[in-house]
Write a structure and sequence with these properties.
By secondary structure, the protein is mainly beta. It has a single domain, classed as Porin (Beta Barrel). It contains no helices and eight strands. The mean pLDDT is about 85.
Length: about 100
């Protein structure tokens, strides 16, 4: 997968979830995403580890409040299909999350 801008959908909640921006940069070493769900905006920044996994943190903004948590994923690519699959830790709970991305540029 090459550096660039992507968009797509994700899941860990029954509500519709949209990824407005997903940016892969620094030769696939960093992944940044903006996600919107139920009036909340999530901004996640993950860095690639030695074993190829992406690990990082997110900031959830709702109203005037900000919360943080940890997230991680692996990136899978098959032709034009791009899938992120991993763990999302929020408010003391651990979730399995996924995202399907499409190339913008």
């Amino acid at each position: 997968m090459k550096d660039g801008k992507y968009e797509g959908s994700t899941g860990w909640d029954p509500a519709p979830i949209t990824i407005k921006n997903a940016i892969l940069r620094e030769d696939n070493k960093e992944l940044a995403t903006d996600i919107e769900v139920n009036g909340c905006k999530y901004t996640a920044t993950l860095k690639q580890t030695i074993n190829g996994k992406y690990e990082g943190t997110f900031i959830r903004q709702q109203g005037g409040e900000k919360h943080t948590g940890n997230c991680s994923c692996r990136l899978f690519e098959d032709g034009e299909d791009i899938l992120l699959f991993g763990r999302w830790q929020e408010d003391g709970c651990s979730y399995t999350w996924w995202a399907k991305l499409e190339t913008l540029e």
